[in-house]
Sequence to fold (701 residues):
Amino acid sequence: MTHIAMPIILVLLAIAFTIAIQRIGAQGSATWPGRAPFLGGGLPETHAWQRFHVRYYPMAVLFIAFEMEMMFMYPWAVVYVETGPVALAEMGMFLGILSIGILYGWREGVFRWQ
Amino acid sequence: MSLLSALARGAEIPIFAATGTRGLALVERLARRPGLRLVASPRHARVLLVAGAVDAAHQRALERLHAQVPPPRGTVWWQAPPLFARGETVAGDDPLPAIRRAAMANDPDQRPDVPPHPWQGMGPHGQGGTGMMGGNPHGRPMAMTAEDIRDGLALDAYTARFGPFLPMLPPGLVMDLTLQGDVIVSAHVASPPFDQGPEGDRPAPCAARMLRLMGIGPRAARARGALLALSKGSGTRRRLSAWLRGEEVTETPEPLPDALPGLEWAEAVLWLASFPPSRLRAACMQGQAA
Amino acid sequence: MIAATLALLLALPLLVWTAAIFDRIGTGRGATVLGPLRSGAALLLRPNTPTEAPDRLNRLLAPGWYLALALVGLSVVPLAPGIVASDLSTGLVLWGACEALTVVVVFLHGWSPNAPLPLIGAYRYVAIGLPAMLLSMFVLIGAALPAQSLSVLAVVEAQRDLWNVVRQPLGLPLFMALGLAITLRGPFDYADGAELAGGTSAEESGPALAMWQFARAAMLVAFSGMAATAFLGGHLGPVLPGPLWLLLKTLAVMAATVAAGRFFARMPPARMLTLLWVVLLPLSFANLALVGVTVLP
Fold:
């Protein structure tokens, strides 16, 4: 419990510092034209909030697969030297299978933007 | 507080440059002057600098920019007739003294303080009404769904007039863009870019502008990586390498409403920046005449 | 612990100032040393403009979250044998969490003003930041292998005979790519780039902008400290005291990162996405395999 106390204290310090600094300046330009979004002089028709489709689904699946591998590798790194070459072979197989996933995703055009 | 004021007195003055006719060469001259800094957004600026004549059709846009510079603000019209009665005019070659005076000034607001749309709808914040996100909450409607050109999903489309003084677009180009995410779905040119004259087409500043959009300075050694960074299809790489060799580019772009849809924002901006200003202006005016 | 925390908090503003000085060197703007202080003071005196219908809480807190992540990341760096602000046995995991949450924080910073250019910057950054985090974790696990532990103290101790930059030569360059991404710099600056007129910062002014830039520089300091610890041996060194070595190595990594940010061009995001997943990530696997082979007795 005490181990996590210091990070939490630092987080609270940072937040307090930021709020304090931002209260220094006056809250200026509360006029409507001053608050319009910057479009180089143009006008928007709607609010800016919209749902982006960044084609996450295939890339997200691949990302989650690698995240789970990373979770597995945290304890693996600690016991690696004791376990010896068996650990290297296991991790090599895991990484190889996931790399085939990257290759498949590349061929399928998962990493293209449009 | 007095320590802050003392420190701030010697700071560089942040300027937002609204570029007009023949203004690109003027602004390039200011880029390396000590004591001032060209910023990308009017909200980071203290002084609005209008460099080069702006025709009266864009007066409203300039007024909006003026309002977006947070007060206290100053205005300087450099080799440009003033379109509204704020700030001072400089006809010569050196705007620096006028900029310094403007940095002490405090212009009053130019635009009236009214909300952009009248509040409509049924609820207390203007929400409610037809459609999934109807009404005008906080003065504007929400973005409604529309077909996505890539795979037919119906997601939100954002339409806006991207105005004449965006720092990453050619100055003067006004486009009505519909974006889905950051991919351009449709583009319509409302006003062509300003005429920059023959100095606007020179290879070195044109290359420097493109490289600045990619985040690096204009030295040729680093620009080798810039060529690799661009994608091959649209000819952007070919034109940048011509500029880096010191040759002028003579290609004319195809009409913008045909070329831009399907491009994502950074690619579209780099594509537009890879044409010399005179050719882009010719293509836009041709598109408007047709 | 408390002493280390106090030392870090006292040193942080000076190191942030140094980072700002490094940013100015070579841009030809002059006033290298006092310039950042003057610009910061001028920004603090400007007003904080609101936008039309912002997400107010996140707009206020986003720079604070970013600074908090930088501080927590810096706190796992040991200053001397046994002296560290956050005494965790899994310091590397905490650092990884700070990196991953940076993606969320930058997204919130771009989402909150309710304006198109910041929103585009936020979404682009998420798509690029996620694979960049993976890259760094494989490289750091390679640093943990010789130490047989996830504690940063043990990682430093394991470098007494050989620095990690020699054991895994690809590790430091790949980690610096991540450093450019989490400090929104250079080729990975998809959130605040020039082609978006300032991106997520386009609608900010005054103290909020000053805090965001401060937090960015603090994240650079934290990243440099972590890179110096995990790859360059941290506080180990012959003649000078430990913390001084750490400071020198941190400054060296900071200068190298700033220079790398100015050297490489920023690709359109689709190309960078392909580069990350198809080239850099397999390179990090190869790097890990190399370390795995050399570490086995």
In short: The first helix of chain A runs from residue 2 to 22. DSSP finds four helices and no strands in chain A. Chain A has two domains: 2-28, 56-108. The helical segments of chain A are 2-22, 32-35, 56-83, 85-107.
